Amino acid sequence: GTDGDDTFIAPSETLDVSVVNGEAGTDTLQATLKDADNNAVVTSESVEIFNLRDTDAANNPAIALDLTDASGVEQVWNDRSVDASVMTVSGLSTDVTVGIRKTASDYTVEFDGVTAGSADSATLVVEESEDGSTFTAADVETLSVQTAGSAASTVDLSGNDFTTLNVSGEQDLSAGTLDAEATTVDASGFS
After folding, report:
1. Which residues contact 75 (CB under 8 A, 6 or more apart)?
2. Is residue 50 predicted with pLDDT exceeding 70?
């Protein structure tokens, strides 16, 4: 990479063999995923934003990626994946913002270091996520959801462990029926 804001394009079937160093700036990796990318271990340094797009749900709807060896990550997006696809990302700290953009697919994030019953928190950004999208992150007690984009978002948040849901942003959000564990919903930051 350079000292500027670089964008790296990762064609399908390359994530497991690519090593990327973004250097300075705010750098983005745009990755197109297919069956062969399932269980890929991604190695990168100083690449802050990952936009991951699953394009191959017809053959194998599930894609799992391990980002344990990706350092400096700040955002990881399920970005415009085909409907009904299933994406799982592991190896992230809860400091990383995860997002769903313009898709009706399932997104599961397995955060490192979270423990059931403790005070773990995570942030999800939904940018025009569509009816049929779901988000799951086990053992996270506080989930903050921010809406973005120019239209409303829909995401099913059932099946999670959070007891507190914070909602903010300027676009409408439909989150489905929350589980009984979700005893506190704070929408004071929602406009």
Report:
1. 48, 49, 50, 96, 97, 98, 99, 125
2. yes
